[in-house]
Write a structure and sequence with these properties.
The protein contains 16 helices and ten strands. It is of the alpha+beta class. α8 (231-246) crosses α16, α13 packs across α16 and α14 crosses α16.
């Protein structure tokens, strides 16, 4: 870790690391430093060993809330207490046991974004998951339970929060330029319970609580999404997509839509795909990160063609680039609704396209295990134990993709015939 006398200039000059965190230690006061996270957040800290020789580290305050000199004075007081046999970290823990839900949620987000809280597979929680957690916290959890003391919560309190979210008590317009309303509903309500229970569980694991006060709270059962496009609807989608293309629909949006239909990829995977990840000759896409971690996923020629036909924007690595900036195109859901309306099809989402791909594979006779691997559900080890991943998966994906492409082309041909007849 770097060292320097902490001054305003030195702290201002600290560059956020690309991963994890960096600490700049003060050369004037041993144990006093400032920590900077990849997000740019800078926090004054004190590190010491207590009477038992155990290394402790506590936060003093964020940079900006206190100046460097003020933080150094606070650090001196903490270190003086250590010399006197006290352990400031224990005092902090005891104080945290009286944390409100709002304070605990803030603690969780800060620690999790710093990589200090582990999720599934004992890995740091993904940014995308934390973004969703933060949205539920701000929109639903804080307004309903934010001022409550965590250790005094009951199962009934958490289940009442769930009921209130389901009934729309926290409904409000979305922020950040997003359209529509955050309306709640049973699915969101259940996920809010899951988020809050996980936060309390992490706090107990880290010693902030002696017990989990709401363990056993029941979540509303979710409705499994089973909607798929049948053969006739896939043909109608092909017809509507061809019509939309001729009448000014965004070609990048249609490209994403076609790719999702031909691959079964998740919406986020399709939209955020980089060109460099796609190996058309090898018939696969190397995703560095998905819901299931890094994965190699097979892709058929028809989908490769849809990807490679997209415009290349210098400086933008995405297969489906946004027209501005370096980001990906992100509005495929809106395009899907426009196309579905043209086709006269109701009740579909991007997940419907994923389910359709798996269902068509089933219609073609592929096993459930193979379909799970095609969709990125099965782990690589499980897949390799039962099928030849290189050949069987490529064959299964290609046949499924080709069948969907055939049905889309059939619909597009009918659209052309109607135009000629007109």
């Amino acid at each position: 870790m770097p060292t320097s006398k902490l001054t305003k200039r030195a702290v201002d000059a600290l560059v956020p690391p690309s991963k994890k965190q960096t600490v700049l230690w003060d050369t004037e006061l041993k144990g006093f430093g400032v920590r900077v996270l990849p997000s740019g957040l800078k926090t004054f800290i004190v590190q010491y060993r207590n009477a038992e020789g155990i290394k402790r580290r506590i936060n003093i305050a964020r940079y900006g809330v206190l100046t460097v000199d003020q933080a150094r004075d606070q650090a001196k007081l903490k270190l003086a207490a250590v010399i006197g046999g006290e352990d400031p970290a224990d005092e902090v823990r005891q104080a945290r046991k009286g944390m409100t839900v709002e304070e605990m949620c803030d603690w969780y987000l800060t620690e999790a974004r710093a990589g200090n809280i582990l999720g599934r597979k004992n890995l740091p929680i993904k940014k995308s998951s934390l973004d969703m957690d933060e949205s539920r916290i701000k929109t639903h959890i804080k307004p309903l339970l934010g001022k409550r003391i965590v250790k005094h919560l009951t199962i009934a309190d958490v289940e009442q929060m769930q009921t209130d979210v389901k009934d729309g008590k926290t409904a409000k317009p979305r922020s950040g330029g997003r359209g529509g309303m955050a309306t709640g509903g049973a699915g969101v309500a259940a996920r809010c319970v899951g988020t809050l229970q996980a936060i309390i569980g992490h706090a107990k694991h880290k010693g902030l609580l002696d017990a989990h006060p709401t363990q056993g709270a029941k979540k509303l059962a979710g409705k499994k999404k089973t909607r798929r496009l049948n053969v006739a609807e896939i043909v109608l989608m092909g017809k509507a997509m061809a019509y939309a293309e001729r009448n000014g629909e965004n070609p990048v949006a249609l490209g994403v839509l076609r790719t999702l239909l031909l691959t079964g990829y998740r919406r986020e995977e399709g939209q955020a795909m980089h060109r460099a990840w796609v190996n058309g000759a090898g018939g696969y896409v190397a995703f560095p990160d998905t819901k299931g971690g890094a994965q190699i996923r097979a892709i058929g020629p028809a989908a490769v063609k849809a990807v490679e036909s997209q415009p290349v924007i210098v400086g933008n690595p995405h297969a489906f680039p946004s027209e501005v900036g370096r980001g990906p195109f992100t509005a495929v859901s809106a395009c899907l609704q426009r196309v579905a309306k043209l086709a006269g099809i109701e009740g579909i989402t991007p997940h419907t396209l994923r389910h359709t791909f798996g269902s068509v594979a089933g219609d073609l006779g592929f096993s459930e295990l193979t379909i799970r691997a095609m969709l990125g559900h099965a782990s690589q080890n499980v897949t390799q134990d039962y099928i030849h991943i290189d050949e069987a998966l490529k064959l299964a994906v290609r046949r499924t993709s080709d069948e969907i492409e055939r049905l889309l082309a059939e619909g597009a041909a009918k659209s052309t015939q109607l135009q000629l007849a007109a």
